[in-house]
Amino acid sequence: LAYRATSMAVQRVLIVTGWFPTATNPVGGLFVRRQAEALSDAGLTVRVLHLRSGAESAEPVQSADDRRLVVETAAVPVRLRVVQEFVAVARVLRTIRRFRPDVVHAHVFDVGLAAVVAGRLARVPVVVTEHWSRLLRGLRWFERPRARLAYRGAHRVVAVGHALARRVSDLSGRDDVVVVPNVVVTAGSVRALDGTPQPFRLVTVGSLTALKAQATLIDALAVLANDRGLDVHLTIAGDGPEAVALHDQAAEKGVVHLVEFMGRVAPADVEEILRRSHVFVLSSRVETFSVATAEALSIGLPVVVTGCGGPEDFVGPDDGVVVAIDDVNALADGIAAVLANWGAWSAPAIADRARHQFGPDTIACRLVEIYEAM
Length: 374
Prior knowledge:
Elements: E1 12-17, H1 30-41, E2 45-54, E3 62-65, E4 70-77, H2 81-99, E5 103-107, H3 109-122, E6 126-130, H4 134-137, H5 143-153, E7 156-159, H6 162-172, E8 178-179, E9 200-205, H7 214-227, E10 232-237, H8 243-252, E11 259-263, H9 267-275, E12 279-282, H10 291-298, E13 303-306, E14 320-323, H11 328-340, H12 347-358, H13 360-373
Parallel strand pairs: 1-2, 1-5, 2-4, 5-6, 6-7, 7-8, 9-10, 9-12, 10-11, 12-13, 13-14
Antiparallel strand pairs: 3-4
Helix pairs in contact: 1-13, 2-3, 3-5, 7-11, 10-12
């Protein structure tokens, strides 16, 4: 049975975010939408205010009724930072006065500061959840004061991973930062891992960028296939600025025939791609969580991930292997270890652990507890 909030103290939640799926970027901020839907499914009335940066006027505000949510979109003009902040605060305050939420929940300090100021003016408690990997990579000098003000002004601060929580604590001086992971929605049954696959199909999902470091994975594939003689194929689902370079690298390493470049994949199709694979691999240099890794675990795939800040929170020895970042041989060794012990992996157990940690009911319950405690 789905979790349902029973307390009467918190019934209406306003989500304020700069990241949310759009027609042109359907995966941007998808984790924010899934969390909002989980709260709605738990019985709360949820409204989303998506503050989009752009040169166009913030008016008129466009609203769209969803089966679970009402989503408002407002453009914040690209001008002086002080002007942006003023417009954002005014827009959040306007929605607070119309919607009358019990809690404002902002995602990422960049809009969290406006939510904190508006919440203080309206006397509504504010939660700020941090997702941004920029904190792990290093904020720019002009971002640090804004982040500090947002965290210190919020009634509660949440981070999606422990490494990120430590960074938020260091920056804000708060010792009460709570870790709540992202929601992962899995529709189907557990992937069967019977028999010894030939070939083993590796898969990675994500934007093709330098930070995702798929170049390290292609080099590791070459080590496995060319130097160690393993029968492995790789599917890369995603698009980005490194796409051409990665294709050229695969050709140079003599493994282009072993790599399927799928390009951008709709969120609804990711689960099917994972089900056609045997092992999920994450080669990133930095992650605050890694939804893709959690999705792979949720259907029962063993994983090989780098210790990049996020997935090491939830990838244990019975789920897969954690290796060093930017280390081709370590990544190849990790993949080889998973394949060599293929019969030891229990897909149902892997999936059960992940679904318990990241399921919508679990996350909604934890958030409602945070709201109620304020």
